[in-house]
Amino acid sequence: MSEKPSFFAELKRRNVYKVAVAYAVVGWLIAQIATQIFPFLEIPNWIVRLVIVLIAIGFPIALVIAWAFEATPEGIKRTEDVDPAAVARQPRRHTWIFVVIIGTALSVGLFFIGRYTAGNRSGASSAELPAKSIAVLPFDNLSRDPDNAFFAEGVQDEILTRLAKVADLKVIARTSTQKFKSSPENLPDIAKQLGALNILEGSVQKANDQVRVNVQLVNAMTNAHLWAEIYDRKLTDIFAVESDIAKTIADTLQAKLTGSEKTAISKEPTANTEAYELYHKGRSLWEKRSGDNIPKAIAFYKQAIERDPNYALAYAGLASAYIILPFWAGADRLDAYSKAEDAALKALHLDSNLAEGHLALGKVYFWKIDLAASLREYQRAAELKPNDAGAHHWLGNDALAALGRFDEAIAEVKRAVELDPLSPVINTDLGTTFYYAHRYDESARQLRKTLEIDPTFFYAHFNLGIALQAKGDLSGAISEYEKAKQLSDNTFVSTLFAQAKAYAGDKDAALRMLSDLDKISQSREVLGYYRALLYLSLNNKDEALRWLEQGFKERDGADISWINVDPLLDSLHGDPRFESLVQKVVGDKK
User: pLDDT tens digits for 411-434?
Assistant: First the structure.
């Protein structure tokens, strides 16, 4: 009776070793293809992960099959049915060795190619995206009550607000991040669109006086999880949670914090959670920028103030809502600006270091044609909240542009676009800053880029019309004014359309619009600037100047503050009356 072979000898006889080595090499080759080639072809990451899992699952199965079956000249047979002596007499084949050698060579080649090309690709991506940049995506509302969506937005916004005060970080504004859902699959693409390397995802669940906040910080280009935490706290502790999240993110991204920034991150805006929720309802509506939503936002801000009369941020929100109320809801301009100023001053009385209060007050001063005071407040807002896109936006497009400090103005608005890259308003106003600087080609390019973001944005259409008109393309300007007219029933757009038609030879269009303005003025205010543009198109400079002077007298800063740089008024430069008016507007800053 022959001696029974050992287990290891049997493994060798059944080619299990060969299969294991060959499978490992080929499996590694396939894994290299999946990890190095698939991303280049933009194949989703979940398919890459699936391939790796299938390779791992297949390894023990391949070994079992190698043990149980054997390849013979007659085909695949169960090992028990094969005569070992006959197998031993068969000539040795070394095909498996060639498979291993070729597979190993390909695997090593792919490894090094992938290592260096991926390194170059990731290096390029890292160069494009600052290491200390972050976008906070919308938080999922896991509460049963849909109304708690405002609360989830509030948690996201408060974290953003705290991070925005850290100068060493680049923090993307909520206006841009709101366009994406929480925990998306295409993180690298979103990171590139937003210009942020790191993404914070999260969810909020609120029930009675308890709240759970679940957050995770991810490197969007590598999908590496940098930090994650679950907070189960009482509702009254929500501000401590938001502060802790902001501090941890800053530490994780190795951002340097000054003493004042640490204090600002830790500060509680209010101790009243009801006021907190009402404020964020108001802010959410304010951001939607429509006639119906602005009055609703004002109502929520007022309710927040009733709950907490010392809630400085709510007063700043109220001021910001009153500032834009005339444009979006047709409210009385002077009354709205007076209320905005009162609310902004109250906010700063409660908290002199509140960036939002300085920003709102800066806009009030700009509308009142006090450019020096406006510049001072905008600069203070940007200093206190370096990542506030709105502060850089208004500082550049308002005060600096109106004063003719174009290099600074363009740099500030470009910074605002970096912080809020998908904002149609800020992108449009980068275009308007270019045409105030008389850089019309750049203006038109930027405005067309804005219309790629939102083709229905009437503000971008009519500003593109102004840029085209300024560079002498009247037909293109009229076309853009017509598009804006179709999108919004706006008196200013109708005025722009009529004056462009007059320049093109249809003087009756301007005369008809002047008559329409007389009728409109019987029920609501018509700004002198509108009539001035129409009279200029009729070559009546005296009347145009009279109405511009009337606009200054009525403190129409929304139009008159830019008088020195407005391309539509270029034909008036050199006229003593106009130059005198310009001096009153810009003062010693000219």
Answer: 999 999 999 999 999 999 999 999
